[in-house]
Structures are given as C-alpha cells and as structure tokens.
Amino acid sequence: MRIVESKFIKSAVKPAGYPSSPYAEFAFVGKSNVGKSSLINTILNRKAIAKVSGTPGKTKLINFFEIRFKNDNDEDGFLNFVDLPGYGYAKVSKTERESWKKMILDYFRNRLSLIGVIVLVDIRHKADPKDMAVLKMLQENNIKFVVAATKSDKIPKSKTLATAKKLADELQINRDLIFPVSSLSKAGVEKILNWIAGQVL
Ligand SMILES: Nc1nc2c(ncn2[C@@H]2O[C@H](COP(=O)(O)OP(=O)(O)O)[C@@H](O)[C@H]2O)c(=O)[nH]1
Ligand SMILES: [Mg+2]
C-alpha cells in the first residue's frame, strides 16, 4: 500500500456528527502526548495534517481524515484515518474523563466502518491501567487492534525488541501485536501501514 493523498474531512463528538463515508476506517488512540498525531502525519507523509501539540490534552474532538492509496497492482483505494482524543492527562476532571470514555465507547460501538485500531503506548513507560482499559474495550467489542510502542528513538536500538516484548507481556497481549515505532526516525512506521493494508487488501 502506498499513500497517494490525504485530507482532513471533519471533526465530530457524537455519532450523528461522524462523516457518512463508506470507507474502511482505522483509528489511532492513546494517552495525550504519546505521539498519535505525529504517527498519523508520518504514515501520511504530511508535516501537519494532524495537529501535533506541545500541550497535552488539547484534542477533544474525533478528527476524520480521508486517504487515497495505491495497492500493489497500482489500483486506487480509499481509507479513513481517525485521530481520537487523548486520555490520561493528569489535570482533567472526573467529568471530563467520563465524557472521554463515553465518546470513545460510542465510537467503538457505533462506527460500522471501523476495521481496526492502533493503540499507542510510549515504549519508555510501564503498562498503564488506562491503556489496558482501552485494550479491554476493544477486545470486548471484537475490534481488531495493534499496539504501536512509540518514541523508540528515545531508547537504545539494542533494547527496542526486548522492551516491546516486555511491554506486550505487561499489557497482556500477544507479542505479535506490538510494533516499536518512531515518528522521528520513521523506524517501524511501515509495519503499522502493512498491518493496516493486511486488514483491507
Ligand atoms: N522523540 C520523539 N518524539 C515524538 C515522537 N512522536 C511524537 N513526539 C513528540 O511528542 C509530542 C506529542 O506528540 P503528538 O503527536 O502531538 O502526540 P498526541 O498528543 O498523542 O497526538 C510532540 O512534542 C512530538 O514532537 C517520536 O517518535 N519521537
Ligand atoms: Mg494529537
């Protein structure tokens, strides 16, 4: 799969606001600042289609993007990418946490075109119960997922694989479902795109 072009479609909060696009959809979810917007930009070869923020906890909307790609036979195909609002920012109130959870669960349960979710975790951090709660939501709703262990450029290359495996064990997921990635060095980013391609092609 080769990305040809991508464009922002719209932001939404509730299912009524989701775009009525029929394309297979992939969503990116993870804690604020984990690197969701950066990974989307890197996969799409764009500098800032998804807004990268220095201030965590800023994106409170579900952002939809439309992607045109070429498959291996050079035929056109379309996908949607979704940048979901981040979680786990220490300063948010209980009410905000609850509304985040409702927004995400509504999305997981109501978005019929949703094919798979990329869950991002920082490769330097221990398994976080908040990430595990998201993985549980996905498993309970039979949604396919893969975990991108982000910012792999921040740890020595020699430790990347072992760290990712350990993280998979802590998260209680199959070790095949975790990929170390870096939006800075672009390491591993192709693996995420290949996983996406594998779900639709
Ligand atoms: N070193 C490094 N920094 C990253 C990487 N990805 C994102 N960042 C930085 O982490 C911060 C948050 O990134 P962002 O994509 O906005 O995270 P989001 O809140 O999950 O969307 C920004 O300062 C990025 O420059 C990465 O792969 N390596
Ligand atoms: Mg973001």
Q: Uncertain runs with pLDDT below 50, 5 residues or more?
A: none
Number of strands: 7
Shape, per Cα inertia axes: globular
The major β-sheet equals: 7 strands, mixed
Distance N to C terminus: 9 Å
Oligomer: single chain
Top-tier CATH class: Alpha Beta
Adjacency order of strands in the biggest sheet: 1-3-4-2-5-6-7
Order of helices and strands: EEHEEHEHEHEH
At CATH level 3, the topology is: Rossmann fold
Query: Roughly what is the average pLDDT, rounded to an integer?
Result: 93
Beta-strand share of residues = 25-35%
* Helix-and-strand structural type: alpha/beta
Which compounds are bound in this model?
A: guanosine-5'-diphosphate, magnesium ion
List keywords for this structure.
binds guanosine-5'-diphosphate, 7 strands, binds magnesium ion, 30% helix, globular, alpha/beta, 201 residues, 5 helices, Rossmann fold
Task: Give a brief outline of the structure.
With 201 residues, the protein is of the alpha/beta class. It is 30% helix and 27% strand.
